[in-house]
Amino acid sequence: MDLNQAKVIDQVDEKAIVDLAGELIKIPSFKLEETPVATFLADFFGSRGYKVDLQEVEPGRFQTIATLEGTGGGPSLMLNGHTDINSLTRRWRRDPWVPVVEGDRLYGHGVQNMKGGLASIIMAAEAVRRSGVRLKGDLVVACVVGETQGGEGTHFLMESGFRTDMAVVAEPFGVGNLVTVHSGIVHMAIHTYGVTGHIRQPQGTVNAVEKMTKVIDALGRVEFTYQPRADMPDLPKLNVGSVIGGLGQDYILVEPPYIPDLCTIIVDVHFVPGQTVEGIVADIRRVLDPLHAEDSELSYEIEIPPPESFKGRRRLVMDPLDVPRDAEIVQAVARSHREVTGEPPKAIGAVLPFSYTANDTCHLWNAGIPCLLYGPAVVRGGDGEDDSCVIISEMVQCTKVLALTALDVCGAEE
Q1: What phi and psi, each to the nearest 5 degrees, are found at residue 100?
Q2: CA-to-CA distance for 148 and 152, rounded, in angstroms?
Q3: Could you confirm whether domain 3-182+320-410 is CATH 3.40.630.10?
Q4: Which one, of 117, 50, 118, 8, lies nearest residue 407 by Cα?
Q5: Amino acid 138: pLDDT
Q6: Band of the pLDDT at 244, cuts 50, 70, 90?
């Protein structure tokens, strides 16, 4: 380890990492509600001398892009993490908004996806800044919104024309894993339609919910057209994630004497490179169209993206990712991992089950930015509880590795 690397590593402080992650846990930031975290981070970075861009992704919805400006002449690196968190499930035992340290685990809702990784990328940049080592290239910390709804924030950032030479996204896949391959994701709404009437005289009515049961059953028989991937053998996958049916366009739910005339399901398809949304829809129609032939009262419609009236719907398609293992950013993270741990990464490429999902790397890659995933491991709730946590030692290791990656990629002044 050279002198600059040692200076940077010396500034990685476990307590500071845990404290920052704890502060982030305390601020609920479900998708569409990330602005309080954005303003907290804007103040954090601004008080430390970063160039701060508080971006308004949509009216009243902000994300924070902070840049530790280089001296010039070196490649730029983006460390990317999302501020939105998953919905709160029902079996939490701890207060989800109070950070709790138990041994090597930090509990709190949202820390698992992905405020633990977010704290790591921020503190990696802080380790560089506090060390006094001046980078040649810019180091960007992108704290983006809406990853859980398809990557709204990173997509907005790319649409604005913002670019760096390379990027790392700190999703919680474990610091032994350099993930360069993942699935694509598309969400769709499927509607069935009925004819309403009162239960006292059901003749001539059509129950949209009953018709949807046939659609759901048929979706279990979809056979996709695709080229199998040995590194992602369980894909493609289809899941019916939600269902709502009722009366009228607003799905009135409190008039059960009336036959429901609209039913909607939200369907998720995780797919492999080579598949297209058009092909996926054609495969689905192959099992749904015969339903109408068998039952003339069954009519359906596929809508992509799902209707805007569904708050937080996934508007964007996330394409599959397949970054070459010899890409410079992949090799830079691998070198830094070895420097910190003394060992090579456990895996580079598709890493299961993590590669069975998608994330903001797809938007970076489509914009021409070589990238990969490298972030601290988490532990999901079990034994009758949903409480999730991040492994503190992995947050520390991630911080060290990404700080050294910044030195490697951006270069340091002598």
Answers
A1: -130, 130
A2: 8
A3: yes
A4: 8
A5: 98
A6: very high
**272, 235 contact by CB (below 8 A):** yes
Class of CATH domain 184-303? alpha beta
Three-state DSSP state, 332: helix
Residue type, 140: V
Decide if 86 contacts 147 (C-beta within 8 A): no
Angle at which helices 35-46 and 14-25 cross, to 10°: 150
Task: Give the pLDDT of residue 384.
Answer: 66
Reduced 3-state DSSP string for 99-162: CEEECCEEECCCHHHHHHHHHHHHHHHHHHHHHCCCECCCEEEEEECCHHHCCHHHHHHHHCCC
Residue type present at position 341: T
Q: Residues 6 or more apart from 334 whose CB is under 8 A from it?
A: 178, 344, 345, 348
Helix (H) or strand (E) holding 393: helix 392-410
Domain boundaries along the sequence of the chain: 3-182+320-410, 184-303
Closest CA to 342 of 14, 1, 6: 1
Tokens of 25: 């846990």
What gap in Å lies between CA 255 and CA 166, rounded to an integer? 55
Q: In what order do the strands lie in the sheet with 262-271?
A: 237-246, 262-271, 184-193, 300-303
Is 9:1 a contact under the CB 8 Å cutoff?
Answer: yes
Q: What confidence tens digit (pLDDT) does each residue in 173-226 have?
A: 999 999 999 999 999 999 999 999 999 999 999 999 999 999 999 999 999 999
Q: How far apart are CA 24 and CA 97, in angstroms?
A: 9
Output the CA–CA distances (angstroms, integers) from residue 149 to 111, 159, 187, 265, in the order listed.
18, 17, 10, 17
Residue 382 has a pLDDT of 65
Distance separating alpha carbons of residues 195 and 211, to the nearest angstrom: 11
Task: Check if 3-182+320-410 and 184-303 are the same fold.
Answer: no
